[in-house]
Design a protein that fits this description.
The protein has a five-stranded mixed sheet with strand order 3-2-1-4-8, sandwiched between helices. A five-stranded mixed sheet has the order 11-10-9-14-15, with helices on both faces. It starts with 6 loop residues before the first strand and ends in a 5-residue tail after the last helix. By secondary structure, the chain is α/β, with parallel strands linked by helices.
Length: 310
């Protein structure tokens, strides 16, 4: 075991969870990942998280800090998680204090969208910009905002919770309401749209990955679902662009894996819907960190809030 300064990053999601060993430069040098299986409830998943962290510590020694990237809502200052939609049973979980008790080092907990914004701002597609929107565009849809060169949190620590926006009059029941933006423009939304629009074709277990694969292969119904998703994604981004006048909108997971299917439509809709002066000042790009973004985002929770130099 070699002792060196390092950060333990925990990227906790509804599909997978990763524990990574990395540095304040955004580099990772070891990684442990597992299927989250949140339907088991909090305790079994938490045991897996702690075990993964201990495995990395056994290999590399004690970290200087722990960074956590996880879905909200949350109390960032106290590191408490309040019932994320994709983590059943995580009800008022004192994530920071539990980790500090388990590992004995400072812990910094951040919303995954905000942590993703930090990652792209420090190390990715938004580097050098002062006004940035990052949209997770993965299983769910959330926004992280860098405004005037600072992470923007809002009055109740919940700025960027755009997935629940009612973007249409109707749609599948996602994020607590029909017509939500997440119900159209996310992995969960793609699968829900498929079931909702074509119940005889797509079963209850259809996934976003399957819809995207079928769309790429030329399936007309699947392509329609993707186009509708991209259209509403563009409409929502146009609202953000006009409101915030940002320099770049960075899109996460689905734009990395299927940007060829989504981005042309998204850019076209934004150009049509947003004011020309605002649309012309803003790029819309996929994450430059690609599949590494969750790992780097977890590190960035500690880098930014721990005052480390990236």
């Amino acid at each position: 075991m070699t002792e060196r300064a390092w950060i333990l990053g925990l990227d906790i999601g509804g599909t997978k969870t990763a524990a990574v060993a990395g540095t304040a430069k955004g580099e990772t040098f070891d990684r442990f990942t597992f299927a989250s299986r949140p339907e088991r409830g909090f305790e079994p998943m938490w045991r897996d998280i702690v075990e993964a962290g201990r495995e990395l510590i056994a290999r590399h020694g004690q970290p200087e800090a722990i960074g956590v990237s996880i879905g909200g809502p949350m109390d960032h200052a106290r590191g408490i998680i309040f019932s994320p939609p994709n983590l059943p049973g995580w009800d008022e979980i004192p994530c920071r204090s539990l980790l500090e008790e388990a590992f004995g080092v400072p812990v910094h907990v951040e919303h995954d969208a905000k942590a993703g914004a930090l990652a792209e701002w420090f190390f990715g597609a938004a580097r050098g910009r002062r006004n940035v929107v990052f949209l997770t565009f993965g299983t769910g849809l959330g926004a992280g905002l860098i405004l005037d060169g600072r992470l923007y949190r809002g009055a109740s620590d919940n700025a960027g919770d755009v997935g629940h926006w009612r973007i249409a009059d109707d749609g599948p029941l996602v994020y607590g309401k029909r017509g939500s933006w997440e119900g159209y423009s996310s992995g969960t939304g793609l699968a829900a749209q498929a079931r909702d629009r074509y119940p005889d074709r797509f079963g209850a277990d259809v996934t976003a990955r399957e819809v995207i694969e079928w769309a790429r292969e030329g399936d007309a119904d699947a392509r329609e679902i993707v186009d509708v998703s991209a259209t509403y994604l563009g409409r929502g981004i146009a609202l953000l662009v006009d409101l915030l006048n940002v320099e770049v909108v960075v899109l996460g997971s689905l734009a990395v894996r299927a940007g060829d299917l989504f981005l042309p439509m998204v850019r076209r809709v934004v150009a049509e819907e947003a004011q020309a002066i605002n649309a012309g000042a803003c790029e819309i790009v996929p994450s430059a960190l690609s599949d590494r973004i969750g790992d780097v985002a977890a590190l960035c929770a500690a880098i930014y809030h721990g005052g480390m130099e990236p």
